[in-house]
TrEMBL record:
Domain of life: Eukaryota
InterPro entries tied to this protein: WRKY_dom, WRKY_dom_sf, WRKY_plant
Stretches assigned to the WRKY domain: 120-170
Organism of provenance: Oryza nivara
GO cellular component entries: nucleus
Pfam family, one: WRKY
Protein name in UniProt: WRKY domain-containing protein
DNA sequence: CACATTTGACCGAC
DNA sequence: GTCGGTCAAATGTG
């Protein structure tokens, strides 16, 4: 479902056949979702959202094909104008004065020691929230260390939100495009962001459960600006993290980024238990917006419209999850 | 000087 | 005993 939106991110800067495939799959899933929602009279809002999702995928596909396949567009009747709006490197959109000030501090973050810091910032700086790294650990069976962050407002507001960032060892081997798995824990009580405050309302029930939510971020190496953001739908990962004390990413995942995205886009892949155990955390949803704010090197992922879809869809998810939580 | 990162050590869970 | 998460002193940067 919303997870399918993951594929949207695949249209980032460097379109490839693989990303086209992913988007196509995502679009297919969205179509299924749409069919489901249409059948349910009580879900008019989500129906509209599903339509928007479909439009997004259509545009993404059209854009991909236009660039990549030179007009070899197959099924998508997309309006075709994948109007590639580039997102500005948004600065502190919706931040309060306090957070904006703090954000500027963040920007002058020092590189004490240097190594690895760039990677970490890459994976984490594009956050509405201010995170402070408090640890780094080598994880067994994982080539890359895991970085531990907590909300910078922990001391000030007692904010308990934390997140863990780990580079997947699956994607960087051959693609040189690292995939970062970000697992969120806890709830932002600092509420330094407008959206954060709004989100807290939505995800209230999980506030203190430390129910982790995951997202996968793929960054290109220096050349591309190819980036993608994935929802906490990666079945295995999310489940592992929720049921156990968040294991490291499964080493057996062979295909890296694609493998992580596929479960999201493929229909019928045990979404329900995943969503049940790890609903999209509010802070995760909020994170999606800042994500666009600091895309690499001015490269854009997708337009603001798509981002709005992300946002709205997240709200819709709340409804859907409840329905799915109580299967008929 | 203030603040953030680094990194070894500590602690709890399994 | 091992492993993962956190702490805190040391260190670097603006």
């Amino acid at each position: 479902m919303a997870l399918t939106m993951v594929s949207l991110a695949a249209i980032a800067g460097k379109p490839t056949a693989a990303s086209a495939q992913l988007v196509a799959e995502g679009r297919e899933s969205a179509a299924r979702l749409y069919a489901l929602l249409v059948g349910s009279s009580a879900l008019h809002g989500p129906v509209g959202l599903a339509e928007q999702i479909l439009l997004c995928f259509d545009r993404a596909l059209a854009k991909l094909h236009g660039v990549n396949l030179a007009g070899a567009e197959d099924d998508d009747d997309a309006a075709g104008n994948g109007n590639g709006r580039k997102r500005k490197p948004g600065r502190g959109r919706g931040l309060t004065a306090a957070s904006a000030a703090a954000s500027s501090k963040r920007m002058r973050v020092s590189n004490a020691g240097g190594n690895g810091a760039r990677i970490e910032r890459k994976a984490t700086m594009d956050d509405k929230f201010l995170w402070r790294k408090y640890g780094q650990k080598e994880i067994k069976n994982s080539k890359h260390p895991r970085f531990y962050y907590r909300c910078s407002y922990k001391d000030d507001h007692g904010c308990t939100a934390t997140k863990q960032v780990q580079q997947s060892e699956t994607a960087d081997d051959d693609t040189a495009s690292p995939v970062y798995i970000i697992t969120y824990f806890g709830e932002h009580t600092c509420r330094h962001g407008d959206d954060a405050a709004a989100m807290v309302v939505d995800g209230g029930e999980e506030e203190d459960q430390l129910s982790p939510a995951q997202m996968v971020i793929s960054f290109a190496s220096s050349n591309g600006g190819d980036a993608s953001v994935s929802w906490p739908c990666s079945g295995d990962d999310a489940q592992n993290n929720s049921e156990t004390s968040h294991e490291s990413s499964p080493p057996e995942a062979p295909a890296g980024e694609e493998e992580r995205l596929r479960p999201c886009t493929a229909a019928g892949v045990s979404d329900e238990p995943i969503m049940e155990s790890t609903p999209p955390a509010p802070e995760l949803l909020a994170d999606l917006k800042p994500m666009d704010g600091c895309l690499l090197d001015g490269e854009s992922l997708f337009g603001m419209d798509e981002l709005v879809y992300f946002h709205e869809l997240s709200a819709a998810l709340g409804l859907l999850d409840r329905d799915w939580g109580a299967p008929v």
